[in-house]
């Protein structure tokens, strides 16, 4: 049996998830009407993207104006004091940007017993909640493979589409996409791809970015590239990963420092290879986002306390997007307002900027 790694991983400690707070059903990825709505041109203001999510928590269910004057004053004050400032000296930019995105809402976090309850006596998948996917790919190892490699929820799918729409409307579409081999990352990226203008950008599946192996007793069996292609996922079959799936599985005893270094090494090799100007997107895990944030800020891999690792989902909620831009001196700096946030009831995908710059 697995330790149920995510029960201790950062994702278990998210602010209230979208589906936990919503009683409205959402369409799946195949709903043409929803997809059309997602791609409808619209402009977004990102002026509040640097504000901390706690300024919204608890306020959205109050009667009266959606944002009280004192709350608005707090937000403006927070923005003025924020140590991260918007880009001003564009002349010093190299032209490269990196976007780090966490996977969307996990199905096993919302429905811990979903796998046992949704497989009927005939061995067929039958969802029992509208926030569950209508169907799932039939894997070689059967549905039990999803026990350690969970899919995302329907609201997770829609949130991923929103992020893709935000990238499109803010002209931040990636020319290169790297994803963790975890199915939740593959699905999140697949949802995002649906609303991009560029439909020819494929996923490069990189096992180096899978989360810390110390959380796992029973290792997940990931879908192969051939399986992903058979299920119509846009993956690059010609991409040669820096570490194979077997290489990563052999690191199950790695320390937190070794994990952070694994992510940093992979990012360095990719940045050394991908010298083209433009945007690169990495769809990974909360802990991986933190490791890559540290690397891009020039900070060494660190021995993160276990309690901090287990709470990482609080710092990088589902579908968090963190942007960095490269300067001409080859250093990277944070872009606080690269994309508009997703805010719904008491959920926000804003990262904790104080934490990621620690």
Provide an overview of this structure.
The chain has 358 residues and is an alpha/beta fold. The chain has a domain of 247 residues: Phosphoglycerate mutase-like (Rossmann fold, 3-Layer(aba) Sandwich), CATH 3.40.50.1240. The protein is built from 14 helices and eight strands. It has a six-stranded mixed beta sheet. The chain is globular. The chain starts with 17 loop residues before the first helix and ends with a helix. InterPro entries: His_Pase_superF_clade-1, His_PPase_superfam, Phosphatase_SH3-domain. This is Phosphoglycerate mutase family protein. GO terms for molecular function: phosphatase activity.
Order of helices and strands: HHHEHHHEHEHHHEHHHEEEEH
What is the CATH topology of the domain at 89-335? Answer: Rossmann fold
Radius of gyration: 20 Å
How many β strands by DSSP? 8
SS summary, helix count: 14
Low-confidence sequence ranges? 1-30, 41-66
GO molecular function: phosphatase activity
Organism: Trichuris suis
InterPro entries: His_Pase_superF_clade-1, His_PPase_superfam, Phosphatase_SH3-domain
Pfam families: His_Phos_1 (PF00300)
